[in-house]
Amino acid sequence: MSMETLEFIIYPDGRVQEKVTGIIGASCAEVTAAIEAQLGRVVSQETTSDYFAQKLSQSAQATAHATFSDW
Question: What confidence tens digit (pLDDT) does each residue in 48-63 have?
Answer without folding.
Answer: 888 887 766 666 666 6
